[in-house]
Amino acid sequence: MNVALRWSPENLRKAKKQLGVAAFRPGQAELIEAVMNGRDALGILPTGGGKSLCYQLPALFLPHAVVVVSPLIALMKDQQDKLEDRSIAVAKLDSTLSTQDERDMIDEIRQGTPELIYVTPERLEREETLAMLQRTGVSLIVVDEAHCVSQWGHDFRPAYLSIRDAVRRLGKPPVLALTATAPPDVARDIVRQLDIRTAVIIDAGNYRDNLIYEIRRTVNDLEKDRCLMELLAGQLRGGPGLVYAATIREAKALFERLRQRGLPVGLYHGKMRATDRHKTQQEFMDNRVPLVVATKAFGLGIDKRDLRVVVHYSLPDSLESYVQETGRAGRDGKTAWAVLLYRLEDRRVQAYFLGGKYPRREDCADVYRALAEEQRHGNKGLTLIKMAAATSLPVDKVKVVVALLDAMGILRRGRRLKLARAFVDEDEFGRYLEEYEQRHKSDQDKLEVMMKYGQTTECRVRYISRYFGNELPRDCGRCDNCRTDAGQRTVDVRELQAGV
């Protein structure tokens, strides 16, 4: 049985030493203090800014385990290895465990041995997992990559939308939500979705002075390839590089072109076999392959501190995605580059993705009709599984629709879904769904902000920081615009393409 340390200055010094911490980074001390005082908290810290310490250190003092909801198995494994090297008991529950290993892990959790328990959001939805954690007790629930909670309709992890229900089932222990990318509207949505409305919010910003942001304007793929080869010839001499492509097709084609030019390069995307993805990742981490071409499936859980350059071959869907992905460079504190190869036509790819991101209005209407029918018959509501059957929608899509209607006060979530508001007719219901259209418009606005980033001539770091709600006192002095003293004028890249 783990015995928690008493919270005292002397024991705090011992804990910091055990975790290899000489001094706190901005925001860490405030978040740790909030957690130790039993407060909910939202921490917005830079990528590589030490978010994990904000729950790993309290875990040494809290009486019960800290449950960490983490998006990727690779991330959990990396954290487990590092903590066990420091003699800190860790458990993880994921799909990679054999039947016997899972039994052994569950026995350890039941005995109260682990100080930290890492789970995927899908695992936290399981009844047996919640029942086990109810018996053992939970002192803190951590939601890592908390911006996923606010990514409505995102196919990546709809299970994030069920976390607040799990928190309620576990007796509402304090919640610590952590992310590197949350502009004010996203931060408000995280707080609402997790039902932590009185949370302490610590925003340390996302500015890192060792990252150099650049734009290379291009007019076609040939020009992009020329710019990319020029970048790789320079930056790769200083260390490893990562190139993001917008689609699997683009990633595969670019990988082949780079390989044909003799570059030692790996490929990573979500449709590859798990063994091939793991092989690429391991070769990259071990420096056997200095360059990887990847889709956005690659990145979360990749802590390669000597990454020197991140290139976006195509336009990302938002500044949030861009900052999250470029923030993987230069975690060792040394100079690193974040370069976007900007082409106006790339907007069409992201606009296409946006078209399929949200549930259809018809799907929302189907869920409402099913609950209204249940209410008319005096029934107690529907489970998610029964709702999926009643509407002929996949369960993951039902989860997204339910989260939307719950946030709008139309239904209540629990073990069963129940109608919270009835409408005179479907026309009234449709008018009430206008927030849905507003969210879709919000994503379109984010894409426009990303486009303007590619066109602006003001300091790029100032532009990014302002978007995230932080105003820098001065320009960074390092980005391409600052180096060329371009001023505050915004130009349309179409002028450049037209030769004006």
Structural class: alpha/beta
In the CATH hierarchy, the third-tier topology of the largest domain is known as Rossmann fold
The count of helical stretches stands at 22
Count of individual beta strands: 15
- Estimated radius of gyration: 24 Å
Q: What is the mean predicted local confidence, pLDDT?
A: 83
Inertia-based shape: globular
- Low-pLDDT windows of residues: 486-500
Fraction in helix: 40-55%
Fraction of residues in β-strands: 5-15%
Q: Determine the N-to-C terminus distance.
A: 72 Å
CATH class of the largest domain: Alpha Beta
Q: CATH superfamily assignment of the largest domain?
A: P-loop containing nucleotide triphosphate hydrolases
- Biggest sheet features: 7 strands, parallel
* Major sheet strand order: 3-4-2-5-6-1-7
Task: Please indicate the count of domains.
Answer: 3
- Supply the CATH architecture of the largest domain: 3-Layer(aba) Sandwich
Can you describe this structure?
The chain folds into 3 domains: 9-203, Rossmann fold, CATH 3.40.50.300; 211-352, P-loop containing nucleotide triphosphate hydrolases (Rossmann fold), CATH 3.40.50; 361-440, Winged helix-like DNA-binding domain superfamily/Winged helix DNA-binding domain (Arc Repressor Mutant, subunit A, Orthogonal Bundle). Helix 2 runs parallel beside helix 3 (53-59) and helix 14 packs antiparallel against helix 19. Strand 5 (138-143), helix 8 and strand 6 (175-179) form a beta-alpha-beta unit. It is globular. It has 22 helices and 15 strands. The protein is 45% helix and 13% strand.
